[in-house]
Amino acid sequence: MFKQGFIISMSSIKKQLHQLCIAYVQERMNAAQQAINEAQQSSNDDTKSSAGDKYETGREMAQQETNRNLTQLNEANKLMVALNQISTSGQQSIADAGSVVITNNGKFYLSISAGALSLDGDPYFAISPGSPIGLKMKGSKAGDEFSLNGKGYKVLEIW
Prior knowledge:
Elements lengths: L1 H44 L6 H33 L15 E4 L2 E5 L4 E5 L2 E6 L4 H6 L7 E4 L2 E8 L1
Helix pairs in contact: 1-2
Protein name: 3-oxoacyl-ACP synthase
């Protein structure tokens, strides 16, 4: 009975971490979209004055800002696609996308690079499977060890 409750709890933690990552990406998307809207509004509000060069410079700066934010929005969309491909159900014994990897040096959620997440007061690090530490963890199982930047890690559990 305890084991089944533990699995449900692990699944719940994975789902909650997944939701925190989705919220992180959604926040990035919203910020980029708002910045695009503001840059476009600024460009539209800019009226042609007697200083034609100033007008063109302002429009060009607004266009560059729009382009920068479109790039950020595109990157956030790619993160959302990656998140949508991750399963949050099931028990895993080998680390892969969607795994929670507990090490002697922290708890990691292999998903996207979203940084530190706090869940019920516990710190987790959302990392990409393609990041340096993600590449070291991917394919590992409980008991495996690896080092990164001179720091040793021992995999204690994988969910």
